[in-house]
Write a structure and sequence with these properties.
Structural class: alpha+beta
CATH topology of the largest domain: Helicase, Ruva Protein, domain 3
Helix content: 10-25%
Largest sheet: 4 strands, antiparallel
Number of strands: 10
CATH architecture of the largest domain: Orthogonal Bundle
Order of helices and strands: HEHEEEEEEEHHHHEE
Strand content: 15-25%
Number of helices: 6
Distance between the termini: 28 Å
Radius of gyration: 20 Å
């Protein structure tokens, strides 16, 4: 599933081609995504300019003068900027066509993505209004994370991938951040000191920033808006390396299941 760095890479890649550009058509080939595409989406977008493109968690928000398109890539979705005459391939479900002659094409083999419309403030939408802070924002600090963790008995790994606590720290980046902070992913969130949360905050920001710079991980379906893969996977220290030697101590990387997800860590380096 594309995670925050992949979504941010996509936002940066498509922004020059959509912001300030007028929509001339919306071609919908398949409405049955995670939720049905609204029947009035074409009418809402046609002849409107995209005024701003933002990311909130894993959602891309396309602002117009009369509302906002909320787009989620789901597990296998991707976006491409194409010539609007390019024929669609299988699973190319939606084209947003611009007066420039280009189109934004939404491709989603598993159809777990979504395209929704709101006339109000998208931050008040039910999908966004309960989310935690952005991990790269000034609101994500040790005092906040420490306060939210008190009396929590859940593992720190599942705590930091909860989008109500902080958004966008998915499975891959949680494992990598905990390794960098030398915190065992099985530790109870409520037993970790404020100082160690400070170290973890720094690690999360560092890992995410480096992943964004490299264009994400591309472990399965994601390739970026230029059609090129991200290369942060070449820098992964623990994720996907079960049984391989730790780069710090040479002991084998362990694999565990936490919250139904594979978790990779070094039992020697992470305490």
């Amino acid at each position: 599933m594309p995670e925050l760095p992949e979504i941010e890479t996509t936002r940066k890649g498509i922004a020059p081609y959509v912001v300030g550009k007028r929509v001339t058509d919306v071609i919908i080939r398949e409405r049955r995504l995670r939720w049905p595409i609204p029947a009035g989406l074409k009418r809402s977008l046609k002849n409107k300019a995209i005024r701003k493109l933002r990311r909130r968690a894993k959602y891309l928000l396309f602002y117009t003068d009369n509302g906002c398109l909320l787009l989620h890539l789901g597990m296998s979705g991707s976006l491409r900027i194409i010539d609007n005459k390019w024929p669609p391939a299988k699973h190319d479900h939606v084209d947003i066509v611009f007066a420039s002659g280009r189109a934004l094409r939404f491709h989603d083999p598993r159809r777990f993505g979504s395209m929704l419309w709101t006339k109000g403030d998208p931050m008040d939408h039910k999908l966004l209004n309960q989310l935690g802070p952005e991990p790269l924002s000034d609101a994500f600090v040790a005092d906040y994370l420490y306060a939210r963790s008190r009396k929590r008995t859940q593992a720190i790994k599942t705590f930091i991938i909860d989008s109500r606590i902080v958004v966008g720290v998915g499975n891959i980046y949680a494992s990598e951040s905990l390794f960098l902070a030398r915190i065992n992913p099985n530790r109870k969130a409520g037993t970790i000191s404020k100082a160690r949360y400070g170290t973890l905050i720094v690690a999360i920001k560092d890992v995410l920033n480096r992943a964004i710079e490299k264009g994400g991980t591309t472990l399965r379906d994601f390739i970026n808006s230029d059609g090129q893969p991200g290369y942060f996977k070449n820098e992964l220290q623990v994720y996907g390396r079960g049984g391989e030697p730790c780069n710090n101590c040479q002991r084998p990387i362990k694999v565990a299941r936490l919250g139904q997800r594979s978790t990779f860590y070094c039992a020697s380096c992470q305490t």
